[in-house]
Amino acid sequence: MNMHLKQRLSAGILLILSGLPAVAQVGEMRNNFAVGFNGGININNVSFTPTIKQGSLMGITGGVTARYISEKYFAMICGIQMELNYSQHGWKEKYEDSTDFYSRTMDYVEIPLLAHLAFGKDRGVQFFLNLGPQIGFLLNESEKYEYTGGEWNPPINVKEQYGKMAENKFDYGITVAAGLELRTKAGNFLIEGRYYFALSDFFGNAKKDYFSRSAHTAIQAKMTYLFDLSK
Fold first, then answer.
1. Is the pLDDT of residue 169 over 90?
2. Pick from 90, 112, 114: which is nearest to 103 by CA?
3. Angstrom distance (rounded) from CA 134 to CA 112
4. What pLDDT score does 75 carry?
5. CATH of the domain at 9
6. 92 within a domain of the structure (yes/no)
7. Residue 99 domain flag
8. Upstream peptide bond of 21 is cis (omega within 30 degrees of 0)
9. How far is CA 35 from CA 19, 66, 82, 85, 139, in A?
10. Domain range holding 199?
11. To the nearest whole number, what is the mean pLDDT of the chain?
């Protein structure tokens, strides 16, 4: 992804988030603040240039969630959601006609800041969409090799990644999510699917570097429990 497109995507997310207060001025005012915790799994890949053939690497994700609902505009409930999560990313390489494999697990602390748009009843089931930017900080990373024979010699052309640690520990990108929320007197129960698309590269991407792109992508399945502090 070129820098111009990255800037346009980031600007679009900021425009969505900055528009929430303006919407709140014309809608039915709310004051619902809720906190809770979330957990789930990541199905990870990395977008590499040059390309590396991959399977999917599974990791865990979980943390705390805070959400503020500011208003209801016609049928749409609008708010903002912030999370602090631990999340595993990385990739697993797939080799044809071989039982050997290589994987890299990368552990991050992540902070998504999401616009929350929902449709449904105050008590009962709601359908929601979450969209916004996400930043992350790499805590650590580990490689796993499994091979037969006397030495590691995978049957692929791209081998620059082996033993090469991340050069950029700061990660940022865009998260899009959709799901269902069940609102009850005992709390709010959410189930959702997410897609994360990184705009940053964890390896160097200058002309002198081997990889021009090395960015995370992840499909996430998450469950969240929230309880209201104010209504």
1. yes
2. 90
3. 4
4. 77
5. 2.40.160.20
6. yes
7. yes
8. no
9. 23, 4, 10, 14, 25
10. 3-156+171-230
11. 89
Burial class of residue 203 (count of CB atoms within 10 Å of its CB; 0-12, 13-18, 19+): buried
**Rounded-to-5 percentages of helix, strand, coil across the chain:** 10, 65, 25
Q: pLDDT tens across 94-103, in order? A: 888 788 889 9
pTM of the entire structure?
Answer: 0.84
Q: Which two tokens stand for residue 57?
A: 């690497």
Query: Would you say 101 and 95 are in contact if contact means Cβ atoms under 8 Å apart?
Result: yes
Q: DSSP code of 4?
A: H
With vertex at residue 50, the alpha carbon angle to CA 219 and CA 168, rounded to the nearest 5 degrees, is: 65
Grouping H, G, I as helix, E, B as strand and the rest as coil, residue 10 is helix
Q: Per the structure, how many domains does the chain have?
A: 1
Q: Which two tokens stand for residue 173?
A: 């990108």
Q: How confident is the model at residue 70 (pLDDT cuts 50, 70, 90)?
A: confident
Please count the residues of the chain. Answer: 231
- Give the least confident one: 17-26, 135-144, 163-172: 17-26
Let me know: does 226 contact 65? Beta carbons within 8 Å.
yes
> What pLDDT is recorded for position 213?
97
What single-letter amino acid sits at 30? Answer: R
Q: 47, 91, 8: which is closest to 212 by C-alpha?
A: 47
| Residue 129 belongs to a domain | yes
